[in-house]
Structures are given as C-alpha cells and as structure tokens.
Amino acid sequence: MINTDWYSIRALTLPATAIALLVTFFMVWLILRLQFSKKWSEAYSDAVFTFILVWKFSLLITDFKAVVAQPISLLYFNGGTIGVYLGVIVASLQIWRKRQKHLLQAQSMIAYSWAIILTQSIYQWLVVLFNDNSTMSEVTTLTVLSILTIFILWKLPTVKQGLLLYTAGLMIVAFFQPLGIWQTAVGISLLLLCLGIALEHERIKEGGKE
Fold this sequence. Notes:
By secondary structure, the chain is mainly alpha-helical. The protein has helices at residues 16-35, 38-57, 59-62, 64-69, 73-76, 80-97, 99-102, 106-130, 135-154, 159-175, 184-205, and strands spanning 6-9, 12-15.
C-alpha cells in the first residue's frame, strides 16, 4: 500500500504507515498477553523494541554524513526500507538466539505463528484504514487477509503449512496493491516465514512432533 496521509503528534509528524505499525505492535502484544502466557508477550515486546532501535539507528548506516552533521536527525528520521529489513533481521536473530530459553514446544510454536501472522495482518488492515488507496486493492487486502488469518489461526494444520499459506496469500494480495509484488511487506513476510520454518525445524529436531 502507498502511504497517503501523515499525522502530527506535537512537533513530530509521522506517516500513516508508521502509526499503523506502532498500533499493530501494541495490539499484537495485548492479544499474546491474553491468549498465551506472559512470557510470550514479553518475548514479543523485546523483539519489537530491538526492531525499533535498529530501524531508527540504521540511519547511521544509510546516511552517516547527515547524522554527523545533524545528530538530532536521529529523532526525526530512520533508515527507511533498509532499516526495516535490518530491524527484522536483527530481531529475528534475537528470537533465534533465545529459542532455548523459551523452549520450542508445540504451544510455543503456536504463539510464534500467531505473532508472525497477526503482526502482518493487523498492519495491513490498519494501513488500509489510515490511507486512501484504490478501492479494489483495499477490499482485496481486507477480505483475503481476514479470511486467511481466521482460517489459519483457528484451523492451523501445522505451523509450517500455516505460514506458507499465509505468505502465499499475502503475495497474491500484493498483486492487487499499488506497489505490487516487490513491496517491502512481501520481503518482510518471506523473512518471517524463514524464521518460523527454522524454529519449527529446530523444535522437531529436538524431539517434537510434526
């Protein structure tokens, strides 16, 4: 989806996509807190905090000269698309490093899959609501992702199948969106799919059932 609106919070002006992302993080944290044990909402908040830090400070990588010239720019700008990818990669590595602490059991993989799917779906829904794109792309996004999310979370055959199905559905939806299949959301979905499959593979290797 294309960002078409901006919102002002005191002296700070944020794109609708950034507002959607922050609201998404809170909503998913709350859902995990209510649906699963406290440790899963805490694990999610840790990953989100890491993502935001890397995303913001990645400006040091993408535009180091500007930061040196005006350090205060770190408060108002971020690393853009590169920063988003770096943030997701570092947060994913953090989750992978802490996998033993959280014990990779069937319940833990369900919590991981809920976090991965809900973060993407709620973000897409809010981006539709906060922006003004073509009616067809908005209706397709809301309808397809809503059906997919409800079906996968409540009728999840296996974690791997659920994540593969969701990512495939998101890629189909992307064809109807203004930015197409090469948008950042699709790339992030593929990274999260790899994380989910790697965690599930590790759980099975440790003796869990498929």
